[in-house]
Amino acid sequence: MDNLSNIDYASYLKGWIRAVPDWPHKGVMFRDITPLLQNPKTFRMLIDVFVHRYMDQDIDLIAGLDARGFIIGSVLAYELNVGFVPIRKKGKLPYTTIAEEYELEYGNATVEMHTDACKPGDRVILVDDLVATGGTMMAGYHLLQKLGADVLEAAAIIELPELGGGKLVREDGLQLFTICSFSGL
């Protein structure tokens, strides 16, 4: 991050994240990264932050969580010249899969990954756009562990600390890097 140390990239990028009140449910403040991705300068800066963080690490794969983790993760994998693994919502992958169920605020969900997506010892960075309750991130982490991968770190653009997901991820022994956080739901 030496090249970016003189820039308050976190504040700059945070300013491009739109707040959408009462979506998808009343009382929820949705953090929309679409404006950040639409602007070529901010999208490039976002990817550069992650590239600078991971470019000197020995990484085999980037795993991206459905769906916005695919956007960040695939571009990051390309820039780092490593493979990309999609972790999808249940029923979206065409080959043999393993699954992990997790709790949502109003029910359960399941994510899946191909059984040959990684192999024991692969060094992986797990990527999503946001860490809220931590359920999706932890489910992806557990899937990668089931296949023997060494998950070096989880990464996201945004952390919502009041929902406790970042704390949950860290307490389970997974390092977490986020660019910015939002308080107040």
From TrEMBL:
<dbReference type="GO" id="GO:0003999">
    <property type="term" value="F:adenine phosphoribosyltransferase activity"/>
</dbReference>
<dbReference type="InterPro" id="IPR000836">
    <property type="entry name" value="PRTase_dom"/>
</dbReference>
<comment type="subunit">
    <text>Homodimer.</text>
</comment>
<protein>
    <recommendedName>
        <fullName>Adenine phosphoribosyltransferase</fullName>
        <ecNumber>2.4.2.7</ecNumber>
    </recommendedName>
</protein>
<keyword id="KW-0963">Cytoplasm</keyword>
<keyword id="KW-0328">Glycosyltransferase</keyword>
<comment type="similarity">
    <text>Belongs to the purine/pyrimidine phosphoribosyltransferase family.</text>
</comment>
<dbReference type="GO" id="GO:0044209">
    <property type="term" value="P:AMP salvage"/>
</dbReference>
<dbReference type="GO" id="GO:0006166">
    <property type="term" value="P:purine ribonucleoside salvage"/>
</dbReference>
<feature type="domain" description="Phosphoribosyltransferase">
    <location>
        <begin position="36"/>
        <end position="160"/>
    </location>
</feature>
<dbReference type="Pfam" id="PF00156">
    <property type="entry name" value="Pribosyltran"/>
</dbReference>
<dbReference type="GO" id="GO:0002055">
    <property type="term" value="F:adenine binding"/>
</dbReference>
<dbReference type="GO" id="GO:0016208">
    <property type="term" value="F:AMP binding"/>
</dbReference>
<dbReference type="InterPro" id="IPR029057">
    <property type="entry name" value="PRTase-like"/>
</dbReference>
<keyword id="KW-0808">Transferase</keyword>
<dbReference type="GO" id="GO:0006168">
    <property type="term" value="P:adenine salvage"/>
</dbReference>
<dbReference type="InterPro" id="IPR050054">
    <property type="entry name" value="UPRTase/APRTase"/>
</dbReference>
<comment type="pathway">
    <text>Purine metabolism; AMP biosynthesis via salvage pathway; AMP from adenine: step 1/1.</text>
</comment>
<keyword id="KW-0660">Purine salvage</keyword>
<dbReference type="InterPro" id="IPR005764">
    <property type="entry name" value="Ade_phspho_trans"/>
</dbReference>
<comment type="function">
    <text>Catalyzes a salvage reaction resulting in the formation of AMP, that is energically less costly than de novo synthesis.</text>
</comment>
<dbReference type="GO" id="GO:0005737">
    <property type="term" value="C:cytoplasm"/>
</dbReference>
